[in-house]
Amino acid sequence: MYKISITQFFSAAHSLRNYEGKCESLHGHNWKVEVTVSGENLNSAGMIMDFGDLKKLTSKVLDELDHSNLNDLEHFKQRSPSSEEIARYIYTRLKKEISADSCRLEAVKVWETQGSCATYKE
Questions:
Q1: Which of 8, 41, 54, 86 has the lowest CB atom count within 10 Å?
Q2: 23: annotated active-site residue
C-alpha cells in the first residue's frame, strides 16, 4: 500500500453552535489541512497520484472556505462548523473529484491550532 499526503492552509472564522464557552463567539483560525491518498498500484509514472494534481483539487475546495465565515456557508447552516465537520466536508468534496483508478482518498486531517486536529475518513 502506498500513501501520499499534501498539506495546505486556509483562514476562516466560525462560531460553534450548541457549545458553551469562548468558542461559541465568532473567532478565526489559520487552518492547516492534510489530505492523504492511498493506492495499491503505481501508474506509468511510478506514482499513485501527482502531488500537483492533488494540490489543485484541494485548493479548489479550500478556496471556497478561505476568508469566509464558515457559519454562513450552506453546508454549515444546520451543522456546527467544528474541526470534525470541516474535515468531513473537505473529504466529501474531494472524494467526488478524486477518481483515478490507481488511488482513493484515504483521510482528511484539519488542524485549528498547532496542537489540536480532527481527522475524517470512511
A1: 41
A2: yes
pTM of the model: 0.93
Q: Which domain holds residue 95?
A: 2-120
Extract the C-alpha cell encoding 46.
511510478
Instruction: Please tell me the distance from the alpha carbon of residue 115 to that of residue 119, in angstroms, as a whole number.
Output: 13
Catalytic residue (one of 14, 67, 74, 106):
67
Residue 95: in which H helix or E strand, if any?
Answer: helix 83-97
- Catalytic entry in 14, 23, 75, 85: 23
CA dist., res. 92 & res. 79, Å (int): 15
The neighbouring-strand residues paired with 105 are 37
CATH (domain of 107) = 3.30.479.10
Nearest to 107 by CA among 36, 48, 3: 36
Which one is catalytic: 14, 29, 106, 112? 112
Residue 75 known to be catalytic? no
Give per-residue pLDDT as tens, 22-54.
878 889 999 999 999 999 988 889 999 999 999
